[in-house]
From TrEMBL:
GO MF annotation, one: phosphoric diester hydrolase activity
Protein name per its UniProtKB record: Glycerophosphodiester phosphodiesterase
Domain (GP-PDE): residue spans on this chain: 7-296
Organism: Bradyrhizobium symbiodeficiens
GO aspect biological process, one term: lipid metabolic process
CDD domains assigned: GDPD_SpGDE_like (cd08567)
InterPro entries: GP_PDE_dom, PLC-like_Pdiesterase_TIM-brl
Family matches, as Pfam families: GDPD
Superkingdom classification of source: Bacteria
Lineage: Bacteria, Pseudomonadati, Pseudomonadota, Alphaproteobacteria, Hyphomicrobiales
Amino acid sequence: MAYDPVFDIEAHRGGRALLPENTLPAFANALTMGVDTLELDVGVTADGEVVVSHERGLNPDLARDVRGAYVPPPGPPFVTLKLADVRSYDVGQIRPDSSYAKQFPDQHTIPGTRIPTLKELFALVRKSGNTRVRFNIETKIDPNHPDETLDPQVFVAKLLGLIEAEGFSNRVLIQSFDWRALLLVQQQAPKIPTVYLTLQRGSGQTVALDKPTNWTAGFSPTDHGGSLPQTIKAAGGAIWSPYFGDVTAALIAEAHELGLRVVVWTVNKREDMARMMELRVDGIISDRPDLLREVAGEKGITLPAGTPVAP
């Protein structure tokens, strides 16, 4: 079965099953391999630098100080650290006794790896000569922990200012579970597509079909026929990015009828990748971009060319 040639192969945090997450070595590996989109997360330091990190601060499972000791939990928020402080930590090896280490036992360690800035990632992509790869950038803001980041207005202004200054406005997408950030992007940079992240299960649930939550900026499916795709369309989204376990063929079809693309996260098993492709999702975010390329190729999807580069 042939699929849409614009299918989006996204390397989650650069492909964290392979190399340390959200680092230049991981992104260089993804560029060399060939992906459509580099998926990443950003925070802002006390001195206003946009850094690439999934957590709102130093991750105790990743960050080691100059003595080689992992930071005790909870790690300090970036908003309390200057870039020079952030640079002093090594994030090239997972804490061996952590559940994270058990999740990715084959991740190649690179001691001495530092948390990069978004500007450095843009420079790496320029160096690679890749003029096509996109950036799916998540704003790490949590409405339940407002003291751990800048407020959404300042955060988004910092991020958009850097993207514009670096000349990448036409190659980025902004994603967030906190829809306040996405509404700000739509107001301030309407040409940048917004990606509405959702999770409908477990302790980390961010959306509910029967009520608004702290994450949805006042929007609720109860005002849109109980439909999450219709809610995202009403909010102004271009892409719906749900946890892959939350989607059905009917929901994907509904989203497509509304003009929304559907890019699911985070899919790491071959059989799940194949099933998502058969459901006609528009893209997959994966910690295993190598395996995702393999499955996509088997499904007749055109694979992006790699652009070899050293970090």
